[in-house]
Description:
Bound molecules: adenosine-5'-triphosphate, magnesium ion
CATH topology of the largest domain: Rossmann fold
Number of helices: 11
Distance between the termini: 38 Å
Strand order of the largest sheet: 6-7-8-3-9-10
Strand content: 15-25%
Oligomer: single chain
Structural class: alpha/beta
Low-confidence stretches: 5-16, 279-285
Order of helices and strands: EEEHEEHEHHHEHEHEEHHHH
CATH architecture of the largest domain: 3-Layer(aba) Sandwich
Mean pLDDT: 87
Number of domains: 2
CATH superfamily of the largest domain: P-loop containing nucleotide triphosphate hydrolases
Amino acid sequence: MHTVPAPAPAPDDTVCDDAGLAIRVRGLTNRFGSQVVHDGLDLDVRRGEILGVVGGSGTGKSVLMRSILGLRAPDEGRIEVLGVDARSGDPADRLHIERNTGVLFQDGALFSSLTVGENVQVPLKEHHRELPDRWHYELALLKVKLAGLPADAINKLPSQLSGGMRKRAGLARALALDPPLLFLDEPTAGLDPIGAAAFDRLIKTLQEALGLTVFLITHDLDTLYAICDRVAVLADRRVVANAPLHEIEQLDHPWIQEYFHGPRARAARAAVPPPSDRDATATTS
Ligand SMILES: Nc1ncnc2c1ncn2[C@@H]1O[C@H](COP(=O)(O)OP(=O)(O)OP(=O)(O)O)[C@@H](O)[C@H]1O
Ligand SMILES: [Mg+2]
């Protein structure tokens, strides 16, 4: 069994040069009053991968995502997203990040007074004013279908949808601008196991078909085992490990041991089909 080095080393830049990174975080510190949520956190997300981000509740996963997206100004640290400095304050850099990222927030964050179609059209109208309204509608319909919703969901209000459908509507909005980088915060939380597995397959299919990079915060062990290429573990105010699951499982960190060697992890591991079957499953919707 390997021991987690303390403090965690900076991610190994020799493994993947910066051109291969979608996100590069160095020395990130976030404080709320006297509470230190992140303290010198480093993280690399490689282009084209699904990175699972795990950690106990309150360890700062959502705050990390918000910092990367520029929705929260961190106290210290450098953040690069798709080759630009996310903290530069330059409107051109902000626009670059906004246009190239899609986000599904933990609470869904759909506008409750707008229909699903209108929600999906919000980023389209903001970033593609030049397109006629009819195109906004047609593009929204395409995304609604891509996210696995029936076409008639486009005219429904979020309150008229089930929780699982709301997640898909949030995904449709996240995909509105065809972003190469997708952020998902607990996308399968609250879904039944069948709905969660279907959502996992959808994410995997989209990643493979569209070449997306996915930053996926989750507590769902089935999701980690089914679709994540690597897993970053938040603990002790840092990313203590960022590696494929079979390597993470071997690390001698108390939280990792408890999380990845409990009965739920054993069940999730056992449910993973062999690679050939997995490929077939991933393309089935
Ligand atoms: N706006 C804020 N003001 C003050 N404290 C905050 C704020 N946002 C987050 N925090 C605190 O930062 C810590 C990390 O919060 P965060 O939402 O990132 O946790 P998380 O890892 O996403 O947890 P969960 O798994 O429950 O979603 C928590 O203690 C939270 O209370
Ligand atoms: Mg959270």
